[in-house]
Every structure is written in structure tokens, then in C-alpha cells.
Design goal:
Blueprint: H1 2-7, H2 13-16, H3 21-27, E1 31-39, E2 45-53, E3 59-65, H4 70-84, E4 93-96, H5 104-112, E5 116-119, H6 129-141, H7 151-167, E6 195-200, E7 205-210
Parallel strand pairs: 1-4, 4-5
Antiparallel strand pairs: 1-2, 2-3, 6-7
Helix pairs in contact: 4-5
Length: 212
């Protein structure tokens, strides 16, 4: 069979598709969601729920909890549309895993807003690669570099990092601009520049900008 397909010029099935998974998610203006865990020095574990808009890479922080039940996750979905309804107005799909926290009422909130639910296969994090990549960012750049004491500290750090990620951190896929970047890079590099440094996330992350 392989020889017949090769002789006919038919490529293997994964290479036959004209639309990749990433291209499909962009065409749907998809939103991905996931949890990641944060362990404190007091041996407490907290769960952070977040949403990321795939085409723009903008991250929407949901909340932190020590007990991510289905009811809590459903309320977080309601809060998402109350706070960020406009940026999500043209989204057509939600990507999530098959965690028990994502109950039917959680899905129904997104269906009501016109989004279809795309469940990733079991043990296939690559199917939710945009969310997984962001988890890697926040772990390497923030969580793994500080000692966490309590839930309040987790909330402050995550909120501050999300703002840093959305407004300052460059992205290769966005031509080195942040998701909410509005300033175009200078066309001519000046010889003498004055750079202003500011700190975020309790001094763990520095931001650099040209002085006005």
C-alpha cells in the first residue's frame, strides 16, 4: 500500500492536510484555557485558571483557588465575559482539556456566547500548546524564581506578570511586539538613547523603555 501511494504521489496523511492545527485555531479566533499549580513554602497548593486568546496571545487571568470545583470554574467563566467580553466578542472556539473541573455548565456559558468546545485528546498537551507554552513562561520567569507564602501573594504576582506579558514582553510571532502593544518600533536607531528601567513582580522582572 505504501508503494502504491508513493508511486501515485500521495503524501502521508499528516502532510496531506492543507490547514495545520495552529492555522485552524487562528481561523477560529480560538481561546485556550488551562490550570497550573503553585506550591507555597507552607506546603499549600493553589490552582490558577487562565485564558489565552490564540491570535493575539493576550492572556486573561481568571482567579486562584485551593479547591477548583466545577462550580468555582463555572463562576470564573462568567467573570471572564463580564470583564473581557469585548476582546472575546469574535472568538468562535474554546480549547480545554478533559479535567473534571470543566463541567457541563462551564461549557454552556461559552456555547451561549457562540463558542464551540474543542476538547484536547487525553494526555496530549501539544493540542493545547498555546496555553502550555504560557505556563512555561510564567514558571521560568516568575514562579520558579521566588518563594510563595500565601494565596494573596500568588494573586498579586500572577496579576502583575499577566500585565507585564500583555503590555511589555515581546513575541516573535507578533514581530517582537507585546499582545497589547501600540507603539511601532523606531525605523531609525538613534545613537544616544536614555533608557528607563522599572521593576515588576516584586523586583523579579525588569522592564526597559526609552525615555520620553
Amino acid at each position: 500500500m505504501w508503494q502504491i501511494l508513493k508511486a501515485s504521489g500521495i503524501e502521508p496523511a499528516p502532510e496531506r492536510s492543507e490547514v495545520t492545527w495552529s492555522q485552524f485555531l487562528h481561523s477560529q479566533a480560538a481561546v485556550a484555557c488551562d490550570f497550573f499549580t503553585v506550591d507555597t513554602s507552607m506546603l499549600r497548593r493553589y490552582y490558577v485558571l487562565f485564558f489565552i486568546h490564540v491570535p493575539t496571545r493576550q492572556v486573561f487571568y481568571a482567579c486562584v483557588t485551593a479547591n477548583p470545583t466545577g462550580a468555582w470554574t463555572t463562576q470564573a467563566a462568567r467573570n471572564l465575559f463580564l470583564r473581557h467580553g469585548d476582546p472575546l466578542a469574535h472568538s468562535r472556539a474554546l480549547i480545554r482539556d478533559r479535567g473534571s473541573q470543566f463541567i457541563d455548565t462551564f461549557d454552556e456559558i461559552f456555547r451561549t456566547e457562540g463558542l464551540k468546545i474543542l476538547k484536547s485528546p487525553v494526555r496530549t498537551p501539544v493540542a493545547n500548546a498555546f496555553a502550555e507554552r504560557w505556563i512555561g513562561f510564567i514558571r521560568r520567569e516568575l514562579i520558579d524564581r521566588t518563594i510563595i507564602w500565601n494565596q494573596h501573594q500568588v494573586e498579586q504576582l500572577v496579576v502583575d506578570y499577566v500585565d507585564h506579558y500583555n503590555t511589555h514582553r515581546p513575541h516573535r510571532s507578533l514581530d517582537q511586539q507585546p499582545p497589547l502593544g501600540t507603539e511601532a518600533p523606531p525605523s531609525v536607531v538613534q545613537r544616544h538613547l536614555r533608557v528607563v528601567k522599572s521593576s515588576r513582580c516584586d523586583g523579579l522582572i525588569n522592564e526597559y523603555r526609552n525615555a520620553a
